[in-house]
Specification:
elongated; mainly alpha
Length: about 80
Amino acid sequence: MDFYRTCSVLGYCLLPVVVLAAISIIISLRGFFGSVLSMIVIAWCTYTATRMFDAKLHLTEQMWLVAYPTMLFYSCFVLITIF
C-alpha cells in the first residue's frame, strides 16, 4: 500500500470529524455530551479506516496494530476540534 492510498483512506475517514466540527460551531462540546460524541466519532473513524486497511492488506492477526495508531491520529484531530 503506497503513501497516497494511505493518505486517501485516512482523509476519507476524517469526514465524521468534519461533521463534529460543524456541530461544535452550533453547540459547545466541552461537557459530557461533547465527550461522548467525540468518543463515538473517534471509534467510527478508527473502525472505518481499519476496515479499509484490512480490505486492502488482508490483516488477520494485526488488526489492533493498525487500529491503535489510527485511533491516536483521529484523537488528535478531535482534540483540535473540541478545544
